[in-house]
Amino acid sequence: MKDILVLSTRKKDFYLVSQVLSNSYTVKYAPDFETARALHILSPFDMIISDIMLLEQNLNDRISIIPDNSFMRINPFVQLVVLCGRKAVQRAVKIVKEGAFGYLTYPIEEKEIQLLVESAGKTLIRDLELDYLRDHFWKTEWLEIIRSKNPRMKKIYESIRSVSPTIATVLLLGDTGTGKGMLARLVHWHSQRCEQPFIAVHCGAIPDTLIESELFGHEKGAFTGANKRKPGKFEMARGGTIFLDEIGTITASAQIKLLQVLQDGTFSRVGGESILRADVRIITATNADLGKLVDEGKFRKDLFYRFNIFPIEIPRLRDRLEDLPTLTDMFLNNLNAKYGKKIHILHPSVIAGFARYEWPGNIRELENILERAYILESSFELTPPNFPPEIVLDPEIKALPVSRTFPLSQARQIAVDAFELVYLTTILEQTQGKINLSARKAGITTRQLSRLLTKHGLNKKNFKKNKKEF
Question: Is 267 helix (H, G, I), strand (E, B) or coil?
């Protein structure tokens, strides 16, 4: 760590910090947020020491300072230190809990500055090392998939990073379409078994009379129609991973056999007496409440405990809307590779509609409607006529949809975000992504416009129209 910014209306704060640190660090001064942002964009700082009053003035109607901190969007490793009076310590502690590194109280002590900066330097080195290890853990082809701005998803990926190299059984919980199959593959491909088979079984799609045969195989003559010996999925997955989706649907007798596999690693084919070894890592998934099924006597309690060693609960898409731009970009890239149309943007009404839609089918629904719209589209962007009408937001609609009940502050923010998204995409479409012209049309500075584009995940390059029709 070498570059520090002091953000304060009190210039003597800067002089004191500079006096203490100037021999080892470059210390700069900003009297307001606009100056601080400009300096940070030109050359990102490692630490920003800011007066609490300036932070709170910048808060406006937002509930939290840190998650929407523009300094962190420029440099995710920047460390924020709060300057405050003793009466404001409680407010400073709240900001620290939200993600700031620490706080200093007035009058500032030279020794406290030195100790805090040294501690921050050690923390920064640790964070950089962890980030290096994370980047080198994930395989290149999965880097796009694990991108997320959602705190819950970030924790999930950290959990997967921890459990993948082990042989622990993983239980994936979540609604249909949330990506349980993708996460199962993510675990497998980052495990010690990645070179061996990954066998997925949709238990809910197999008739009850055939589930045991499908999983464990059968001997010739085991039942009517068994004309020859057939290996099961556990044999096919030997040395690798078996993914049992919708595990809550399997029969009681199949549950007993699975329990045997988990307890001593053995099984027998249907109609057979030979004992076979099950050298597999088991990942299961369900959209059902297994605990409730246990209470109702539909699922074995001992089997549930065996599966529940490392549960991961996946959020619904409507609970991680901040990932919509990333997911949309990923699916569009896949579609461009598959169909070759080179469509990279969505119409403003579609973007705004995505932000307010309930997404009952989750990520799978998003992928499917994008593919349908892509196939139908004949221009450079995906337009409203090719989407279901309930997904597209009519720009003339002024009222906020009330299909769900929100606190007033959250409802207000949803309405503001939806308006900003439609407004910005419309202007960028008109100007073909020209920032200066767009800022003039909006009556704001280019810096303010850039900040809003970052907030909404908009890229000016995507609005430079390709006139070629398909």
Answer: strand
List of E strands, 351-419:
381-382
pLDDT of residue 47: 87
Domain that holds residue 413: 319-463
Lookup: tokens for 238: 């030997």
pLDDT of residue 285: 96
Q: How far apart are CA 307 and CA 284, in angstroms?
A: 7
CA 159, chain centre distance (Å): 13
pLDDT of the residue at 67: 38
Cis omega before residue 107 (within 30°)? yes
Between the CA of residue 376 and those of 82, 341, 370, 390, what are the distances in Å? 53, 11, 10, 18
Residue of 332, 394, 404 lying closest to 369 (CA atoms): 332
Q: Of 69, 46, 41, nearest to 56 (Cα)?
A: 69
Distances 225 to 204, 214, 228, 235, 414 between C-alpha atoms, Å: 22, 14, 9, 21, 59
Check whether residue 311 and residue 326 sit in a common domain. Answer: no
- pLDDT at residue 141, as a whole number: 64
**pLDDT at 394 (0 to 100):** 57
- Residues 453 and 420: their CA atoms lie apart, in Å, by 10
Q: Which pLDDT score is estimated for 409?
A: 55
pLDDT of residue 297: 93
Which domain CATH number covers 264? 3.40.50.300
Separation between Cα atoms, residue 119 and residue 113, nearest integer Å: 10
Residues of the chain with confidence (pLDDT) below 50: 60-68, 132-133, 395-406, 466-470
User: What are the structure tokens assigned to 236, written together?
Assistant: 């096919």
CB 251 within 8 Å of CB 210: no
Give the SS3 label for residue 3. Answer: strand
Of 315, 291, 313, 314, the closest CA to residue 303 belongs to 291
In a domain, 243, yes or no: yes
Q: What is the CATH number of the domain that holds 40?
A: 3.40.50.2300
Separation of first and last alpha carbons in the chain: 51
Pairing of β 276-277 and β 266-267:
antiparallel
For residue 48, the number of C-alpha atoms closer than 13 Å in the C-beta half-sphere is 32
Amino acid (one-letter) located at 408: L
Residue 143, domain member (yes or no): no
The CA-based angle 339-343-347, given to 5 degrees, is 135
pLDDT (0 to 100) of residue 410: 53
